[in-house]
Amino acid sequence: MRDLKRQRRELEKQLAAATSYAEWHATAEQLDDLEGTLAWRAEGGCELLHEKLIREHIDAMVHCRKKGDTRGLTRMLQESLYRHLGEIANPDLYAIAWTGTKYLVTEFLDEVERSMYFICEHDMPGITEQQKLRLFRDAERVYGRPALMLSGGAAFGIYHIGVTRALWEQDLLPDVIAGSSMGAIVAGAICIRNNEELERFFNEPGEIHLDAFRWLEPSRIWRKRHAMDQTQLLHHIHTNIGSTSFREAAEHSGRTLNISVSPTRTRQKPRLLNSLASPEVLVDSAILASCAVPGIYPPVTLQARDNDKGKNGKKPYMPTERWIDGSVHGDLPLLRMARLHNVNRTIVSQANPHVLPFISHHHERGPGASAKQAAASILHAQVATTLQLTRNSWSSTILRPLLEQAHAMATQTYLGDINIQFPFRPLLYRKVLTNPGREDLEMFIRLGEQATWPRLAMIRDQTRISRTFSNCIARLEKACNANDTAGE
Asked: For this UniProt entry, which segments traverse the membrane (predicted)?
């Protein structure tokens, strides 16, 4: 028993010291083997899965494929996905083994993918390629797609670069990405780059401009009522991102950028800026607004592309409104993302310093972790209730806007379907509002990668069908375009 514990501690140290996903995964497999969870993965079913029914559906899909029955296969896919999606998406299935869940889930997803490609590539009686393309598009719309959401976090938010790099290296980076505050800077840096430019961004992080923060002199802080130089932040944004509209960014990168901003007016609502809702708004102004933490930076008037003044022309957007940090009212705009982009699975990278203490035990299991989670939940509820009562009592005072903002921050949701969180390390809090050096940059990126690697199996499984839909639609579009060209 003592030798077993020693081996486990040694492997856990190797996990923490891993410098690549391949190295991490190899060590995680050894740990799973040592703990017996590889055997658990190989066992047929468990109380969380309806093994018999899943195997029946796998066999039925195989039977339809072998018969070439594309219509029957389509019906079986519709039934099977509807019946099993909830159970195979259960996060408890991924809380036992380091390297993934039951092999039965992988077997099921393998057959679903094969069946979807079979329908895509074979004739359906009475259905043209154009009609099949519409069928796939309609099915994808019903099924939904994943989105990545990057929280605020000041300097901690640099770790989002590590999260996105880990996803990108495994071809799991979603096309829909949202960000607030520092998360908006990272999301913007990714969504204004095409694939070739993004490869350089991830492989050569030394080119990233790091000097975002510059404190004002005490006399200017008192006079201006904010602590940091906004022109320095804007220079940082321009250097890393440039000045482009949401529409221009989407056309260039093929990705959909979403940036959260919060209103300064109580009667105004938070906004999610993107190429659908605000195509001509300039990304740099949206990011500047989303970073405008009250007391740190002043509120921002958004800017939009003015095409009448040429390629670089700009004009105020909603000039009577000013906007602040998106984290205040919508660090994770879950509902707005779902409505606008048909999101069915949210991957959240959370680095907000004021949130981390409440969620630091979210992924742990056992009685001790449950007690910590219960204590954190009680404390969080108490803070929210206190702010609610204070807000009502002081409704007519000058403190009302600040209390509104504090209450909004305390009551919003900070977690999604799949969560990747910055490790809670109190000693790092001294770096929250300081510009990182190159060593800090590497450290934050590595923390992001290490936090993401244990979630990759879950992300790969739970986004696999969405990615297969995208691939099938791309193939059908290519075939339809080829047919149209041949017919001309």
From this structure: 142-161
Contact call for residues 376 and 308 (beta carbons, < 8 A): no
Helix axes 51-67, 103-121, angle to 10 degrees: 30
The DSSP string of 35-96 is HTHHHHHHSS--TTS-HHHHHHHHHHHHHHHHHT-HHHHHHHHHHHHHHHHHHHT-GGGGSS
Tokens of 369: 């972790």
Return the active site residues.
181, 325
Distances (CA, A) of 132 to 111, 124, 167, 468, 472: 20, 8, 31, 15, 10
Kindly tell me the burial class for residue 421, based on how many C-beta atoms sit within 10 Å of its own C-beta (0-12, 13-18, 19 or more).
buried
Q: For each of the domains in the chain, give its residue range(s) and CATH number, in order of start.
A: 1-144+461-487 (no CATH), 145-361+397-453 (3.40.1090)
pLDDT at res. 82: 81
The two tokens of residue 224 are 């201006």
Tell if the pTM clears 0.85, that is, is over it.
yes
- Check residue 303 and give its pLDDT: 97
What's CA 450's distance to the chain center, in Å?
16
Here the tokens at position 26 are 């190899």
Task: Report DSSP state, residue 454.
Answer: G
Residues of the chain below pLDDT 50: 361, 365-372, 374-376, 378-384, 386-389, 391, 396-411
Q: Which of 53, 37, 291 is closest to 155 using CA atoms?
A: 291
State how far the Cα of 114 lies from the Cα of 119, in Å rounded to an integer: 9
User: 273-309 as b/e, with b when 16 or more CB fall inside 10 Å?
Assistant: bbbeebbbbbbbbbbbbbbbbbebbebbebbbbeeee
pLDDT tens, 182-223?
999 999 999 999 999 999 999 999 899 999 999 999 989 988
Q: How far apart are CA 173 and CA 250, in angstroms?
A: 15
CB atoms within 10 A of CB 462: 23
Per-residue pLDDT, 413 = 63
φ, ψ of residue 451 in degrees (nearest 5):
-75, -25
Long-range contacts of 195-200 (CB under 8 A, 24+ apart): 195/254, 198/168, 198/253
pLDDT digits (tens, 9 = 90+) for 124-178: 988 999 999 999 999 999 999 999 999 989 999 999 999 999 999 999 999 999 9
Instruction: Pull the structure tokens for residue 188.
Output: 């913007």
